[in-house]
Design a protein that fits this description.
This protein is mostly helical and about 450 residues long. Helices cover about 70% and strands about 0% of the residues. A two-stranded antiparallel sheet has the order 1-2. Helix 8 (about 165-185) runs antiparallel to helix 9. The protein is globular.
């Protein structure tokens, strides 16, 4: 079970304050509730939140809702996002069968979206969540921490080999998915033109902000149609394609546990020296907290540098940040201590921030009605066949190229995700957050290439 799952087994509590314990020593069972029994209650968790704290959080949220005004500051956002994010994720982790195929990420994203649409969540909560999410843009803080943390703590050999080889399964998978998806949609009566331009291409366009919006703007200029109507047409395939990728990536995680020879559990290639430092499970001891803080500031600085590159050269900020981080790593411009600090930053964000972030995404950025609009049988079959082909081709090509096929399939899945939000959900469902740098290549670069080539082709056809 995931490390963020509820921990309630007796005897797992480390010694708490007051007495300095021997390393690994558990508190003696004295039969008293206070303090040993209370400590055990505190080690019963919903996600990462101690159960008593979780109860207090829920009571505080209810009290603020009753009083009619919820502060839109970061402290309140942490409480609200953590409470609902870990609650939804915990529900997903406890449902048999589907908990093995990424239900935690799906529940944390799509249950809040449905609750907003059906007006179950109080309006004050929705307003606060939406305003904070859009104003703070903390999705990109998360992506910065994950990308920079994973790249800086990655083995240089793996970095060079992985980035050089990942384009091959991605390109072949994209071509195959376009062909199969278009043929399936045509066979189901959706029409070749409509299937290709309004279902298949939006799936692989790179999400909403970097994909569906520029795609709909380009379509509007070329076809002389209303951009809003075109955006409403291409958005449902983007969202349903991302949901399909999440489900299939969660399934591949389960398959990898049954057939470990097919997966590197986050590594791309089966070489002995192909290990990623970020793949380790435990944080190294005796770390200076200043190195952790320095790594966090470095990650944010590289993202802001990416934003400046976007203003100057038009390159998307996450992509610019990714390439800068790669150059910094290859040039050995950061010390080993800072690399260890970067791993801690990566681990903190992947453990503590993922599900709260998915809740915020579900409330603020995932319209439930648009998702449901794609649930016609021909459209659904076309979307699923497109994503399945993309991932299956990545699986086969990755295996042929001596890469771990499950990892290459999951990276290809990110090409059909909902941008950065989709990458987070897909990699969370697959339990492979360390693949974020490669996922960003699939999403950002793959999406940009797809949109550019398709708009050129449509312009020549019109």
């Amino acid at each position: 079970m995931d490390k963020m799952a509820v921990v309630s087994v007796a005897g797992e509590l480390p010694q708490a304050s007051g007495v300095a314990p021997v390393a690994g020593e558990l508190p003696r069972a004295s039969g008293r509730f206070w303090p040993e029994g209370w400590w055990r209650v505190m080690e019963t968790r919903i996600g990462i939140v101690p159960l008593p704290v979780f109860v207090v959080m829920g009571a505080l949220i209810a009290a603020f809702v009753v009083t009619g005004k919820i502060p839109a500051d970061i402290s309140m956002a942490i409480v609200v996002f953590s409470f609902f994010g870990f609650l939804c994720a915990e529900l997903g982790k406890r449902i048999p069968i589907i908990r093995n195929i990424g239900a935690a990420a799906i529940f944390a994203t799509f249950i809040p979206s449905a609750l907003v649409y059906y007006k179950v969540l109080p309006e004050q909560l929705v307003k606060m969540t939406t305003e904070f999410t859009k104003a703070s843009n903390f999705l990109y803080l998360f992506i910065a921490a994950i990308i920079v943390g994973s790249i800086l703590s990655m083995n240089r050999t793996v970095l060079i080999k992985g980035f050089a080889k990942i384009f091959v399964p991605l390109a072949i998978g994209s071509i195959a998915a376009m062909a199969v998806g278009t043929m399936v949609g045509t066979a189901l009566g959706l029409g070749t033109y409509h299937t290709f331009f309004f279902i298949v291409i939006p799936i692989m366009a790179g999400g909403v902000g970097e994909g569906a919006i520029p795609l709909s703007v380009g379509y509007a200029e070329i076809l002389h149609q209303d951009q809003g109507a075109l955006f409403a047409t291409v958005l449902p395939p983007v969202m349903l394609g991302s949901l399909t990728a999440i489900l299939l990536s969660g399934t591949l995680n389960y398959v990898g546990k049954r057939y470990p020879g097919l997966t590197g559990e986050g590594r791309l290639q089966p070489d002995e020296d192909d290990q990623m430092d970020a793949h380790q499970e435990e944080i190294p001891g005796h770390m200076d907290v200043t190195h952790i803080a320095a790594a966090g500031v470095t990650a944010v600085t590289l993202y802001v540098l990416g934003v400046m590159c976007q203003r100057l050269f038009g390159l998307p900020a996450p992509v610019a940040m990714l390439f800068i981080a790669v150059v910094v790593k290859l040039a050995q411009a950061v010390s080993p201590q800072l690399q260890q600090g970067a791993f801690v930053v990566y681990k903190f964000f992947s453990t503590a921030v993922t599900y709260p972030l998915l809740f915020a995404i579900g409330v603020a950025l995932t319209p439930w009605d648009k998702l449901m609009a794609a649930f016609t049988l021909p459209t659904l079959i076309t979307i699923v066949s497109t994503v399945v082909t993309l991932m299956a081709t990545g699986f086969a090509v990755g295996r042929f190229m001596n890469m771990y096929p499950i990892e290459t399939a999951i990276i290809n899945a990110c090409h059909s995700g909902q941008g950065g939000t989709g990458d987070v959900a897909i990699l969370t469902a697959a339990n492979r957050m360390q693949l974020m740098p490669f996922a960003q290549i699939a999403t950002r670069i793959g999406g940009a290439i797809t949109v550019t080539l398709v708009l050129i082709a449509l312009a020549r056809m019109s």
